[in-house]
User: Fold this.
Amino acid sequence: MTLLFARSHQWLISPSLKIFSRLLTLLIILTLSGNVVVADTYKEKLDLQPLSGQFLLASFNFQSHGPIEAFNKQMFQLFPRSLGQILQYTHTRELHLRFALGRWDSELWGAQPGDGQNAGGTGVETWAWVEADNDVEAEARWTSLNNALSGLFCASLNFIDSTRTIRPVMSFNPTGDYPTTNTSRLFLLHGSLPKEPVCTENLTPFLKLLPCKGKSGISTLLDGHKLFDASFQSMSIDVRPICSPHTGTCDIEIQQTIDMVLDISRSLQRKDSPVPRPRDQHELICDTSKPYASNEYCYPMDNSIDLPWSLSDLFGRTISGGCPFAIKIPTEETQHVCIHAPENKLKTMETLELAAPAPTEGQPDLKCYVLRENLPFDLSFPKQQPPISPLRQEPLLYAERSFTGHGQEHGGVKTVLRNPNPNDPVEVVYLESLPWFMKPYLHTFKAQVLPAFDGEADVISELYYRPALDRKRGTQLEAKLVVPPNSVVILTYDFEKAVLRYTEYPPDANRGFDVASAIITIPPHRQGSDGKIIPATSIRTTSLLLSLPTPDFSMPYNVIIFTSTIMALAFGSIFNLLVRRFVAVDEVQRVDLKGKIRGLLGRLKKGKTE
Amino acid sequence: MDKDGSQSKLLQDDDSILPAGFVDKGADDSTGDLAATFKQPPPERPETVRTRLWVLLSAWMIAIFLGLPLWHATTTIYRAPLPMQEMQNWSEGKLCKTEFPLLVEVEAPSLPDAENLLKTVQHALDDANDFAAHKPHHLRLRLAAKKAESEEDSKSDRDENVACLLRLIPDSQNGYNHIVQSSSRIVDIHYPPPSSSSQSSVSAGLSKFVAETLEVLFRQEQELIEHLLLPQTSNPGSLNAISSQSADEGRDKKTPPKPRAATADITRRMSRVVKYSSSYHITFSLFTATSLPASWDIESAISQYLTPLLSALSPISNFTISTQVQYYASMSSGITPSYDGQSQSWTLKKEDLSSFINSAEWPLASISNDPNLNFILYIPHPSVSPLTIPSASHSNSFLLPQWGGVTILNLGHSASGLEHLSNPTLKPVLETFATHLLALLGAPPHPASLPIRLDSLIRQRSAEVLVSASSTLGSLQRLVNALPSISIPTTVSDSVQDSIRHLSLACEELRKGSFVKALEMGRVAQEEAEKAFFERTMVAQVYFPDEHKLAVYLPLLGPVSVPLVLGVFREVKRVIAEKKRLRSSA
Assistant:
């Protein structure tokens, strides 16, 4: 005890102990300088890809690694403390969080960037592996995780309760490494909020998690006005532990991405005239190929010209130099800004002469740059005539989902999955998370193949179904099925609409209830025809808007009044039956009202005349 | 059909005021001449009259004794019973006279009549205590046990109970003086050795000096605790205003008025102190205006310079620590340091310091349930470096009351040491943070001995939690009285009971002198009291007035009460008519 006090006091008073402490310090420094101080590493990259129809895909990727020991001790460096503390407090080992707005138009734009792994369904979607002893504890930790994230990201994540939580069986697999954790203690929970409008208040905390905070590096381009003006945008955060198979040391990795599809013509127009105006006639390019075209009328052509653009035009600013932490990585060759475009187009590209090009071997349609600290970066494409059509990668699968049926009582859901590949079938896992008030009839769940498929009669090989419990949990429907090459699988099922309680309706009940996107996962596989390995891919359908029968909201007062009146009527008549005396009609003691009124009037007249 | 019906109704209305049902042919005929066709109904049998009376009476009885209570019970707000009087008594400080018996051991191996000396000192101390009756401290002196006999077994016991140990050492050179050892509870008192001739005078002088020393040692703590207990006793609305007033008078008469500066100092110090909790979360943050320095040796620095202090504090509170580095952290936009040509540095204005923390952008919130203390090391941008704060000591730091501390570190322009903050660089910073931490926790700056200061911190904290818990109970009691429409769930009354039970336990422990236990009990009492006060369901239906209830149920109450009232009215009329008839016939 006394020793403890002595040590505690060395820095306050006792001069004799100072020498000792200095010695100790020296000793520690000497021992420390032997090891290399393991610091966090950070990477960031911006991928640009022009898409057909005058769109530009900009994918931002920010990634940082840090030793997991420091993370567990809450000694944070590049990893954001606000998020790290939440993960530790709730024992979350792996977290995936998605904010998305808009629809990825795969017919026009092709496959999603990053194989769809970074995109989420409309609104907010989150799934996590939570370490816990049992299911109840996992649920409690999941709830507190959502509450904390809700505060951190200014989103209504706290509304992810047990009715919006599912435990997918086939769709998700942990992407991190767990050498020490018993995997039976890890619980996967998934929740989605399709109604959540994603906006700037979610972007600001997102940027705060970055080490450079949008003050330098590619994150300087991220501005709420531009990001949320995009045709499609998706923000994602993934945290997972990663262990090196050689050394056995583990890191914690946080990866933040933003994918946005900018409408180039819209962005340029916004720049020229902030208030949208119709274009002048001489600016229009008329489609003269139409048979009904004439000199008097112009049928404007879309996407016919290649508009000239530059980063500063589209984002309203240039990249203000590289983020220092992303520059310092000594080992790998760094690439900060990359652009994928046809070779002809890349040749015309101009950059500010301040960035060093990074080597890109054997890829003629790719050009990359390394940013330098404090030196701005911009790139621009001049107008091109004739237009060069951009690269497009065919997606593995097209998926769309819609409601069928009519009326307030029943409805149906129809999902169309189309495999464009002429040779290879695609195995997919289809996952739906339905709210409890949408009650599917499982016996109506059917898969139809078009054109009629000769092989196996049933394309569904596995089905996992967890029925809903009213007000406790939603339906979880997971099906593994095969979409044959060059054909369409149509999944249909019917459902019943439940009637909610009075207080369960939201303020805008007549708008309808959002149903979360269906998640279609294609597990990693090797293509049969050319032996190419396809990584895990996921596709999300759009969310649906379900209209439920809505009551008249003055109902409770009406009910009270009706029942009160009936009770009062019943009581009144019975009471009168008991109390009143029944006599014959001619025995009724009549009150001569007429005579009384006449008398009154007469008296009044009399009074007046007097 | 509609048209016909309405037409016929109109017609009937024209010639008869009677309802449609009554208008049959016979009646139509009779309207002209009422008296001719009117028949007197047969007289009622007395049992019919009696039955009717019974029916009427029972209907009223049911309405009054069953209907109304049922309606009231189903629509009323549940209010669990609370021990209101007891709560009020606690809040007025009636139920617990806060006392802090302190045991002081005296070791005087070279003094022959130590017993006698102790008696004199005790007398002097008791006199001082009588002087100011309100003083919570009671110093009790005891001669140290002979070392040899019970060194081992009583060691732990002594550590807990003895507030300090006085060692009387004869010293011929320096005369009277006392030395406080910084890392133990031992206070050495030096006194000139007695010459054989004036044995008694030395003894008197010594006893006076010992009493003074003890007074000095505990004065600051005493003032602080008095300050804590003061608002409780001088509560204007309290019932024991008379007694507290008399106590005030007594103090005014006898003790000299306290210097205002001292009171202001205590208030200032108390306003800094964070609310007591059994555990705190400390966050050390490195905020730099650029991307440099990129890392710091905080882990080793904490374990070296701070962990010993934290483990010494562990009987009072536990601490968890997290650290973070935040780059590109700009000061709040309103703050612009001005350049001082004389010292060639940038200075912040004093009023800027309160808004120095850029809470909009700096991620400082913590999700743990414990109170969070923030210590920030700020590295200014090179363009405003060196940055200084006005009237600062050499440490260039300031303390934010109840929140944490900030140190500004100017790194200079040399390239070395910018990338990484090493352990020696952090040493002065962490020392500043340690003093900040002690100030935030409320440890008195005096005396020099850390154990005595920590002991005194425990006493101070227990007084604080007691006062806080009882005043929370008092507020709850006033709230419940003020808002009759507020609902009180049973959890609230349970918490209140629990809080009161722990309060009295804490009070008992205080009297026994085991302050750590008292603190523990007081903490539970405070937690429970706060749980009761901040019960969420109490606020949910604060405003649901009785008029509203009546309006909603009027469709039931109206139609039901009308036949009941009319029935009584008719009966009364009948009885009166009967009486009149009887009188006229008589």
